[in-house]
Task: inverse folding
């Protein structure tokens, strides 16, 4: 079970990174953790993206960090607004950084670092607007089976 590996303290660390990143950008970041991925990891991440209603942000600037712990699968997926703006190597750089931590079973640290990296890019392309910005998506870590 994912909650046996991602502790409440880990959840807090990940949520703090999301909140820190989102204070600098109108972008929205979610983390979803489950045990298994029984299909292509990007296909499953796309399903979760839709299940979490991430495509409904006003600027189409949601980013999903998806991890299937037991299957050692990871993907980071951005919505259309972000994909049109970030450099080509953006997702690969984040993935490499996160996986570096995962190899040592430092899941919360890896996810938090990846979230901070995404936040930096989002800040450049989708700056925070103090007057008009609302938190469109939950900062909680979501869990599947």
Result:
């Amino acid at each position: 079970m994912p909650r046996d590996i991602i502790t409440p303290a880990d959840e807090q660390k990940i949520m703090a990174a999301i909140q820190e990143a989102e204070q600098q950008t109108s972008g929205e970041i979610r983390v979803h953790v489950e045990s298994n991925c029984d299909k292509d990891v990007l296909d499953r991440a796309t399903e979760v993206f839709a299940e979490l209603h991430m495509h409904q942000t006003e600027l189409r600037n949601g980013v999903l960090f998806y991890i299937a712990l037991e299957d050692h699968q990871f993907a980071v997926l951005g919505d259309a607004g972000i994909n049109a703006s970030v450099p080509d190597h953006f997702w690969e750089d984040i993935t490499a950084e996160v996986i570096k931590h995962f190899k040592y079973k430092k899941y919360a640290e890896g996810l938090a670092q990846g979230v901070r990296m995404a936040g930096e890019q989002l800040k450049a392309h989708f700056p925070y607007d103090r007057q008009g910005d609302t938190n469109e998506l939950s900062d909680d870590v979501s869990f599947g089976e």
The first strand starts at residue 28 and ends at 34. Residues 2-130 form a domain with the Diaminopimelate Epimerase; Chain A, domain 1 fold (CATH 3.10.310.50).
